[in-house]
Amino acid sequence: MGLLARDANDDARSAGLQRAYHRGASRTLRSRRPGRGSSSRPPATSVALAHIRAGRWARSLLEGALEERRTNMGFRTQRALEEQVVVITGASSGIGLSTARLAAARGAAVVMAARSPEIEQLAEQLRSEGGRAEAVVADVSSEEDVRHVADVAEARFGRIDTWINNAGTSVYGRSLEVPVDDMRELFDTDFWGTVYGSRVAVERMRDLGGTLINVGGVMSERALPLQGASSAAKHAVKGFTDALRVELEHDEVPVQITLVNPASTDTPLFAHAKNRLDDGVPAAPPPVYAPEVAARALLECATRPKREITVGAAGRARQLLSRWMPAVADELAARRMFEPQVRREPHEPRVLGAGSERGDHRGMVRRRGERPAIRVPTMPAVVAGVGAVLVAVGLMRVASQIAASRAV
C-alpha cells in the first residue's frame, strides 16, 4: 500500500472514530433524558458516563482497526506457548528463573541466559523434568554475549518467538552519595542490556515475527527515594521501549513490543543489591508479590501481547497516583517510602545463589495479583477521587484566605 493511500485510510479511520464517539455519547444521553418536571439539562454524572461509554465504544473500534492493520502488516497470531522458543535473560534467579521454569513446564523451548555458570545446572534440571531447555552463560552488558545467546537459540531450536529482557541489578543509597561508578555499572545491565537484547531480538525476529518483552518496573513511572539510579534506568527502559514500538509500527515490522512493570517482588535482587545506605540493608517495600505472579504475567504477554502492563494492583495504584497527582505522590514518598526500604540490620553479605526464586523478605508475600494489575480502574472512580482531592484543595484555599483576612 502506498504512503498516500495509507495516510488517506488513516484519516478516514480517524474521522470514523470521532463520529462513533459522538454517536455513542448522544445515544447515552438520550437514554438518560429526565422525566417531566425535572431540569432539561442532563446531570453531570450522566454526561460523564456518556463520554466514558462513548470512549469505550470508540476504543473498541480503534482496537479492531489496529488489529486489521497489524494483520495487513504481516503480524501473525502468536503461537501457543508449547510451540514457542522463549529466550529469557537474567534466568538464574528471581523472576527470570520462575518464568523459565513455568515456561518449560507448559511445554515451551526455553533458552536461559545469565552470568552465573550455575545456569547450566538449572537448565539440566529442567531437562531432567522433561522440559526443553538450553543454557548460555552471558553478560547482557556485552553486545557480543547477547548475540551469542541468539545464535545458540537459533542453532538449538531453529528460531526465536519471544525474547524477554529481564536481567537487572540494583544499588541502594541517596542519589548524591551513591558512587557514579555504581550507577554506570547498573545502567550497563539494566539499560544497555535491554538495548542490546532489543536490537538483537528485533533483528532475529524481523522476518518471521515475534514478541519482545522488556521488564521495567513501577519505577518506570514512579521514582523511589534511595533507588535513584534504578529509577533513572527504568525510566530509560520505558522511553526506549516506547520509541522502539512506534518505530517498528511505522516501518511495519511484525514484532510486537510489551513493557511489563512488576511491583515490589520477593527476589534475591535486594540481597544482591549494592548497599550504600548509612544504616541497615536494602529491603523490598510492601506490598510484596511472589515472583511467580510476574512470571505468569510475562508468559501471558508471550501468547497475547499487550502494549504495557503493571503486575500487582498496588503498583498500578502508585503509578496512577503519580500520574494524576504527582505532588501528592511526592509528599507520600517523602514521608513513607524511606523506612520500608531499609531493614535495620548490620551490613553483612546476604548471598542467595543461583537457583533461588525467592528472596529473604520477612513479611507477607502475595501470590496473586496479575489480573488486577492488567485492569485499569474505571474512569468514574478516577474522576471521583480527583474530584474529592480538588474539593479538599479548594476548601483548604478558602480556609487559608479566611484566616489571612482575619489576620489583617
Automatic annotation (TrEMBL):
It comes from the Bacteria. The keyword Transmembrane applies. GO terms for molecular function: oxidoreductase activity. One of its GO terms (cellular component) is membrane. Residues 1-46, 350-371 are annotated as: Disordered. Keywords: Membrane, Oxidoreductase, Transmembrane, Transmembrane helix. Gene3D superfamilies: NAD(P)-binding Rossmann-like Domain. The chain crosses the membrane at residues 379-399. Residues 36-46 have a biased composition (Low complexity). Residues 20-35 have a biased composition (Basic residues). Belongs to the short-chain dehydrogenases/reductases (SDR) family. This is Dehydrogenase. It comes from Sandaracinus amylolyticus.
